[in-house]
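Need residues for this backbone.
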């Protein structure tokens, strides 16, 4: 997916419709910095703003995501190509988020262990030792909670019984027994409990 091409297309359509970056931002209820980022190819609009732009510019999703007007004859080919590109982009983003989960987990665990090491081996009063141990445990809990939040929302879990893929509730992931990113949960489709693997 060519972000620069999409950005130029957004700028072109904005100008054709008589919008400035400021007036388009006001129409969408966002900052004009967001419009500028889209047009410079730094990032894509989110799904909600993609829909609004398509309506305002009177173009299809495929045209917006391909960065050009599409003939009716080529529409099916473009649709399939853009769907594949969008899927690849989503997979790459999910992998990146899951990498963040590992980094946050390692940092919070290392911080907890370091604080406990200091509390045990450095000469200090008992109140300070207790404070460092509690602080370490809080950092571990907060870091772990962020990790589980990321894991819940990046990719999907696949039911071992029926193959259904879904995004579970945070609480279901948080309290589930797990081995790595495989968790024992109840499938919302077949309602059977099984070890469900994270798929990106």
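Answer:
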């Amino acid at each position: 997916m060519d972000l620069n091409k999409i950005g130029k297309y957004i700028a072109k359509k904005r100008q054709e419709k008589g919008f400035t970056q400021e007036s388009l931002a006001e129409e969408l209820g966002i900052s004009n910095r967001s419009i500028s980022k889209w047009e410079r190819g730094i990032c894509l609009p989110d799904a909600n703003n993609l829909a609004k732009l398509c309506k305002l510019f009177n173009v299809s999703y495929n045209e917006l995501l391909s960065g050009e007007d599409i003939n009716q004859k080529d529409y099916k080919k473009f649709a399939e190509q853009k769907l594949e590109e969008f899927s690849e982009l989503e997979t790459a983003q999910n992998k990146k988020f899951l990498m963040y989960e590992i980094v946050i987990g390692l940092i919070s665990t290392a911080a907890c262990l370091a604080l406990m090491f200091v509390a045990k081996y450095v000469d200090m009063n008992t109140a300070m030792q207790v404070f460092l141990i509690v602080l370490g445990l809080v950092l571990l809990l907060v870091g772990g909670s962020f990790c589980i939040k990321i894991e819940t929302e990046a990719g999907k879990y696949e039911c071992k019984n029926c193959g259904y893929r879904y995004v579970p509730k945070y609480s279901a992931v948080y309290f589930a027994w797990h081995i790595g990113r495989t968790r024992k949960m109840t499938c919302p489709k077949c309602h059977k409990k099984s070890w469900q693997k994270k798929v990106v």
